[in-house]
Amino acid sequence: MTVQLSDFQGQPALRLRAPDGAQATVLLHGAHLVSWVPAGGEEQLYLSPTARYGEGTSVRGGVPVIFPQFNQRGPLPRHGFVRSRAWQPVEQVVRGGCAIGVLRFESDDTTRAIWPHDFSLELTISITGRELDIELAVTNTGETAFEFTGALHTYLRCLDVLRLQVEGLQNVAYEDAVLNQPGEQWGDVLTVLGELDRIYFNVPGPVTLREQGHRVHLSQSGFEDVVTWTPGTERCAALPDMPDDDWRQMLCIEAAQIANPVRVAPGEEWIGMQQLRT
């Protein structure tokens, strides 16, 4: 079918709309989901009003695709290189009450100069009702195996990050980048006091963000870890693409694969998914 492109902040994008009114917008730049509005609901993703767009940039907010390296945990550019590159639209369709968009990224000479492997990525966005599914498929199209880490770096919009709670992480071990030390979530809820940057390892089940009048349930498959992040006052003030006080309006809860890199043999495929439901 023909994919109908629209415009978002001067960038080509797919706009998805389900029969029940659920909507989403995903940029071709980075296959970056920048908006999700459930049926009868409000915007659920945080997107910085001063975000930067265009070739070579990464958009602050939404859902960046992190591949093939998480953060600076390796020799590659921070968070890899696919979030700042153009993807190709593959499909835009309404099927079974769901609006679905599919984008693809394939290795080329410029990616092989950074990371010497052949691969294909496919990101599938599916919305219906009050549910969003994000699926990342990684295929090894080369002749040698490779390993990668990555994430769906989901920025959730909130009323006030200092007043929300995150449930589902009790007794889970984590690495705290702010304190530079390991820990374990003893309480039944996680609360935010300021800057927060943690990797929770081998999270056993769904996670829920809950605040007055608002909640989001997050579940995942394929991904084993969960990252929680908000920059706090000082770090946010140092970010050129985010207003100083906006850190209180967002919390990242990311489906991630960090502790145990994924190994993909030639011709094989790995699939990871994050599902959000309000």
From TrEMBL:
Coiled coil: none annotated. Keywords: Isomerase. One of its GO terms (molecular function) is carbohydrate binding. Belongs to the glucose-6-phosphate 1-epimerase family. It catalyses: alpha-D-glucose 6-phosphate = beta-D-glucose 6-phosphate. One of its GO terms (cellular component) is cytoplasm. This is Putative glucose-6-phosphate 1-epimerase. It is an enzyme of class 5 (isomerase). It holds the Pfam family Aldose_epim. Its EC number is 5.1.3.15. It comes from the Bacteria. InterPro entries: Aldose_1/G6P_1-epimerase (IPR008183), G6P_1-epimerase (IPR025532), Gal_mutarotase_sf_dom (IPR011013), GH-type_carb-bd (IPR014718). GO terms for biological process: carbohydrate metabolic process. The active site is at 153, 254. CDD domains: D-hex-6-P-epi_like (cd09020).
